[in-house]
Amino acid sequence: MSQLPPSPRKHLDSPRTRAVLRIQQQIVSAARDHLRALGFVELLPPVIGPATDPGGRGAKQVDVDYYGHRYKLMTSAIMYKQAALLTFDKIFCVAPNVRLEPPETCSTQRHLAEFHQFDVEIAGAGAQDAMGVAEDLVRAAVRTVTEQLPEDLDVLGRDPDAFTDLLARPFDRLSHATAVADLAVLGHEQNPDAEIDWEGEAMLSRKATRPFFVTGYPKGSRGFYDREDPEVPGTLRNFDLLAAEGFGELISGAEREFDHARIVTRMRETGENPGKYQHFLEVAREGIPASAGFGIGIERLTRYVCGLDAVWEATAFPKIPGVVSL
Amino acid sequence: MTGAGGLSAPGFPEAAVRERARSGTAAAFPPLSGYGHALLGATPGAPEAGAPYGAPGDLLETGRLVPPVFMPRRLEKLIELGREPQHSDVDLTTDIGGFHAPLPLYVSAFGSTRAAGDGLGTAVGRQAGRLGLPLVIGENVLPVSGYGRPGTASDGAGAASGLLRRIRAYADELPDGAGGVAVQQSTEDADAEVWNLLHSDPHVQPLLASGRLAFELKVGQGAKPGLGGMTLVDAAEADRLADRYRVRDTLGEKGDVLRCSAPGTVTEEILRQQIRFMRSNYPRVRVWVKLFPGRDVDRAAAVAWQAGADAVTVDGAEGGTGWAPHAFLDGVGLPLGECLRRIGPGAHPLLVSGRMWEGGRVARSLALGARAAGLGRAALLAADEDPDRGLIRLTACLELELRLLVSALGKYAVAELAPEDLWPQPAAERRPDPTTREPS
Q1: B105 pairs with which residues across the strands?
Q2: Do B337 and B217 have their domain in common?
Q3: pTM for the predicted model, two decimal places
Q4: What are the GO BP annotations of this UniProt entry (chain B) (predicted)?
Q5: What's the domain count of chain B?
């Protein structure tokens, strides 16, 4: 498989693309059914706003001239999710995100400049609750694909037995510190203060036969909204879900900072200018619910379920970082 | 002097008071007519005025470099060379915040003063590139001068001197394996995502791939410790910047407006986490931190190094190229010599700036623990004298002085300069907590 997509016509007209997009539709549909059955309300996601998730790993946001004001295309709906909990206790949306990732990510096979997320947020929940919802959601989505679309998996050469372990057993949970130690044993030097690098994630992921959670990332590796553990300062109450077979990260989630002063302080610790977030902070100053939530990369989950070499195969109109295309 | 009412006040700064009575807030600043042309900083007690501008006992001003008579290291060099060593044998190469440099020199940031616009900043960058000296680019070049992306007509008021064009002018001249660019960002520049913009720009990838890109977290600057950047803008530009900066305090009668950046709130934990966040976000980029000469500069430097900063830059109170109130230029912040005394010598990558232009002050700074010295006003003046060769000639002169001084001290590597080379000896002071860089 080439690192870059073929022409749009060839990609759109391919039986493989057809099979992948049918499976993706099944995943989205199953996730919606699963969450609605749990009492979640689906909101239509915002597309632009005065500020968006500053994220990490150096991706640039897209500026939009909004009547002379600098607005941003959403990189994630995180602040809107937290604010939306004033309306409903459990919400989700299927949200488009745009992140101008560094050009080096064009060869990781797992980055897109435009992608979609299931964004889920739960009022009053902790990180463990959110991980439980995420695990059940992934399992439900994979189960319906294996049950209802075996022919499409066959077109892609994906063996449904790859999910036997996923469907039968709970996902493991290991701490960030343990992951760093495991990587050291594997001969991979990982900065203990940082996000686990892509190579490290792939190494851990290749060892696994079903997805697993990495929990408790250090402060300094994530955005201001992941809550610092009051009992273990310096550690965040957050998690990633990494797929098996080397497919890497599928989900990022966390318990959220919801106290106004804490949010402002964490913004400064991540180098942000709180003035940029004044509209969100005005809402937070008057109080927003404590919550936890997560985002699932839909194209990445599709890639894993379909066993694709590259994540761009999981979208009809791929935007590879730095590559100009349809 | 008498005013309209006929009063006089002998012995009192009457003229200054009357100037304030006439001009109001504008009198807090140097004359507006010099804005964009006068390179401000260290106006009080400049040497030509006959008064020391450093603190009493400031070794950068009053100290002397004193060679010993007995020189065992010269003997070592003689044995190594098989002949008597000369000043030309001094090794001046230095690691500056992760960059290799042929000299213990780098070019400091100029801020957004108009003096650095109009191509002068680019001329400095081009010459610095030819010399292989690291170059720091100011935090608000992007918001004020634009980005200067090739192929676009203009993306800001001064796209010709925009951020990317300055970087490219420098990088195009850079010899293999030397130099590097450090780009500043401070609190409000986070809105413009200066670092993310560069990090994701294909034109910057060669610098990134060769390990010659650094991001400098700007905590403050020597000319106005505790304040953010300041520039004068006209009314139209003030409107353009109004939703990004505090733009107010009209100065004078021409309608010039003072644009103030927020200084940014820093605590130990905020500084530590910002550095970690930078290291996590940009693992291939060097992390520099620029401190103003605050009273806890030693502690701040220790926190920065411990969090993994590749370099800490201290801008002494003598530093500055931009706009600053008299009260700050004259009386706020520690002189650089005192900063060096508080931080103390060590293996840490400490970069210093403030009134650097000749070899003696640079050598004294290195003897007090600095790794390298930054040229600010001197670089701008040199390029103003000759946009093509001025900085190159100034640097050649400084290089010769350094070679002569270091060899006279019986040493043949610039890194060997130490407090023992100074008289009087720096007083032993409290030291910051022992620090080691955290594992990466």
Answers
A1: B373
A2: yes
A3: 0.90
A4: glutamate biosynthetic process
A5: 2
Are B345 and B413 in the same domain? yes
Domain carrying residue B348? 14-21+64-147+159-226+266-423
Both B246 and B271 in a single domain?
Answer: no
Q: Residue B71 carries which side chain, given as an amino acid letter? A: M
Residue B169 lies in a domain: yes
CB-CB neighbors (< 8 A) of B262 in chain A: 273, 275
Tens of pLDDT, residue by residue over A3-40, are: 789 999 999 999 999 999 999 999 999 999 999 999 99
Nearest C-alpha in A relative to B200: A102
Cα nearest neighbour of B216 on chain A:
A271
| H or E stretch at B164 | helix B163-173
Amino acid at A129: D
CA angle A251-A212-A263, nearest 5°?
A: 45
Radius of gyration of the CA atoms of chain B, in A: 22
Interchain proximity B200–A321, CB inside 8 Å: yes
Q: Which of B147, B280, B303 is best to mutate for the A interface (most A CBs within 10 A)?
A: B280
- On whether both B328 and B273 belong to a single domain, the answer is yes
CATH assignment at residue B216? 3.20.20.70
Among B191, B274, B276, select the one facing A193 at the smallest CB separation: B276
Among the partner-chain residues A100, A103, A273, the one whose CB lies closest to the CB of B190 is: A273
Complex-level ipTM: 0.89
* Identity of the residue in A61, A193, A268 whose CB atom sits nearest the CB atom of B280: A193
**Paired sense of beta strands A90-98 and A41-42, if any:** parallel
B433 is a domain residue:
no
Report chain B residues whose CB lies below 8 A from the CB of A322: 200, 202
Task: Give Cα separations from B429 to B339, B341, B365 (angstroms).
Answer: 11, 7, 17
